[in-house]
Specification:
Shape: globular
Order of helices and strands: HEEEEEEEEEEEEHHHEHEHHEHEH
Strand content: 25-35%
Structural class: alpha+beta
Distance between the termini: 65 Å
Number of domains: 2
Length: 328
């Protein structure tokens, strides 16, 4: 009898159907992703939905109709079903919160026993390129002294200035950022040559393979690079004999990077952000490339390891919005 009951239950169990997804950010054809701020969106008509992911070391938030319902943290395959939704149309989002400098997570899929609908469409597209300030490094922390584990757990890229502004604009967005990297020099001279422009083409930040062309073209590109180039003194054995040589190399390589991006994204507007310590250099790059410099004032830096707080992130979002004007 037990076997017959099990067979009957299986026969009448609801059939779940895949929900078409829009991927925001760089995602490989097999669903892997590593850059900060990646998200997936889907729409369905029904009362339940299931999200299946391989979370890696990431924290992945699941939101339904804009309300956070869970944060998936367990490494390996995680499957979470959400029942009891009101009848009708819903939007589900899976958002990458944490930074991954090696490894990756993977979207397996989202299914529903209701009716899948076409994913949301965003007419506007913005790309944010940068370092830890763009990642949102430890931005939810309320203390400056943080272990690496605390940094990981308190980083929420979705609350960094880029995603929060893009969401206000209802824009599709990508965050190509890596903590500790600069234009020509990384923090304290570490990982020489492995700078953000070198990492930029990659599909997964910790892997050398380039991203496959996907036709995604941003209308606005916001770059915030320079903090790691200049925040620590040059050490013996580095490539620059003095500060003047470092600034000259920064200018030349930054101009080349912007021109490369301009060639790949004709018609896109560019905003180049700069802190007080290097805004003069950024203004020279902007003048040479026909782009716009955005001066960032001294921030309070009360988050992990003297990084921008949520208040600082909002200030930067406001500055970018003011500089961008109306994004068509």
């Amino acid at each position: 009898m037990l076997r017959l009951a099990l067979v009957a239950a299986l026969m009448f169990a609801p059939v779940e159907t895949s929900v078409p997804l829009h991927a925001g950010g760089r995602v490989t054809t097999d669903g892997r992703f590593g850059w900060p701020g990646v998200y997936f969106e889907g729409r369905f008509n029904g009362t339940s939905v299931t999200a299946s992911v391989e979370a890696g070391e990431d924290h992945l938030a699941v939101l339904i109709d804009g309300v956070e319902r869970a944060v998936l943290e367990k490494p390996g395959k995680v499957q979470r079903r959400f029942d009891g939704l009101s009848a009708g149309e819903h939007v589900i989002r899976v958002e990458k919160l944490t930074e991954t400098q090696s490894g990756y997570s993977r979207m397996i899929g989202i299914t529903t026993d209701g009716t899948p609908l076409a994913p949301p469409v965003h007419a506007r597209r913005v790309e944010f390129i940068g370092d830890s300030h763009s990642v949102g490094y430890g931005d939810t922390a309320t203390v400056r002294e943080c272990t690496q584990a605390v940094v990981h757990d308190t980083t929420n890229t979705q609350l960094a200035f880029g995603p929060r502004l893009a969401k206000k604009w209802d824009a599709d967005y990508r965050v190509i950022a890596f903590s500790g990297r600069g234009v020509v020099r990384n923090y304290s001279g570490g990982n020489p040559g492995d700078t953000l422009p070198v990492l930029y083409p990659r599909a997964i930040p910790g892997e050398a393979a380039p991203a496959a062309p996907d036709g995604w073209k941003p209308q606005l590109i916001v770059i915030n690079l320079g903090t790691n180039d200049f925040s620590t003194p040059i050490h013996a054995g580095e490539a620059w004999k003095d500060d003047a040589a470092l600034h000259a190399d920064y200018h030349a390589k930054y101009v080349a990077f912007v021109r490369q991006l301009q060639a790949a994204n004709p018609g896109a507007r560019f905003l180049l952000m700069g802190a007080p310590a290097f805004i003069a250099d950024v203004r020279k790059v902007a003048a040479a490339t026909g782009t716009t410099a955005v001066a960032v004032p001294q921030l309070e830096f009360t988050a992990c390891n003297f990084h921008p707080s949520l208040k600082d992130q909002q200030l930067m979002a406001d500055l970018v919005e003011q500089a961008a004007g109306t994004l068509k």
